[in-house]
Specification:
single chain; four-stranded antiparallel β-sheet; 9 helices; 35% helix
């Protein structure tokens, strides 16, 4: 049976130093592998055990990294194991095939966005006008598809985020708060649509998925089986479904557990 495994990356398989959640005594902490360097500094990690599990998974299934990162941000990551043929970037806005964005897929996505939701320029202008400079550090547009803010989380007014979500909902957009970033993403821009396209192209008979944030909910529901860690937006809201397994682990050990679950499901298929 051909199995497709689509997994979110940040805070699902890979973790920044701040997100590792190493709560055990230092002497018992797992050995870590750096999988991303940015501006000559180590940025993201997984455990060495997780690295071996991902290598084994890449040999046994069609592994598809699935991320809200832009193509440029994704290409900084150096995952262990076989180079994936497919990768989903920009929350489904780009489908990479052997590292190159598929132009037909991107054209389909942009046409859908133009037809179904308010334009990016309107959302970007609202964010620039409404966000408080006290807690906003950066305004960013990702691949001309969606916008996000980098914020000082301890200063952030979370009621403002709720108000933004209502404003965005009325314009066909969704809002997600992940760590120090507030994302505003068009509702038709989904990881699940790209997952279905890769499943069609590969002839996958079983699809597995994992993720931790609101932007992963549609991905988990679209897969035959899904997993979420004990941290993140989905954990905070108690999100679950019959096909989704809730894991107790938090931080980098959750990434290791997710890969064990994937591998077990692939070998049992």
């Amino acid at each position: 049976m051909r199995v497709l495994v689509a997994s979110d990356l940040d805070r699902t398989l890979i973790y920044s130093a701040a997100a590792l959640a190493l709560t055990m005594p230092d002497a018992r902490a797992p050995r870590l592998l750096c999988v991303e360097v940015h501006e000559s500094k180590p940025l993201s990690y997984m455990t060495e055990t997780a690295a071996q599990l991902l290598t084994d998974l890449g040999d046994a299934a069609v592994f598809v990294p699935t991320t809200t990162r832009t193509r440029k941000q994704y290409q900084r990551i150096n995952l262990p194991g076989p180079e994936p043929t497919y990768a989903i970037c920009a929350n489904g806005g780009h489908l990479l095939v052997d590292g190159v964005s598929d132009p037909d897929w991107h054209a389909q996505v942009t046409a859908r966005l133009a037809d179904q939701c308010a334009p990016l320029a309107e959302v970007q202008e609202h964010l620039l006008r409404a966000a408080d400079p006290v807690w906003v550090r950066k305004h960013r547009v990702a691949d001309d598809l969606f916008a996000y803010l980098v914020v000082e989380r301890e200063l952030l007014d979370e009621d403002w985020v709720k108000e933004l979500a209502v404003w965005a909902e009325n314009r066909g957009w969704t809002v997600s708060l992940q760590g120090r970033k507030i994302y505003a993403v068009p509702k038709p821009l989904t990881k699940s649509a790209a997952l279905r396209e890769v499943a069609r192209r590969t002839g996958a008979e079983l699809t597995l998925a994992a993720g931790d944030s609101l932007l992963d909910a549609d991905l988990l529901l679209a897969a035959d089986r899904g997993w979420r860690p004990g941290h993140g937006e989905l954990a905070d809201t108690g999100f679950t479904a019959p096909s989704i397994r809730v894991l107790p682990e938090r931080g980098v050990l959750a990434g290791e557990r997710i890969l064990r679950e994937f591998l077990g499901a692939v070998r049992g298929a």
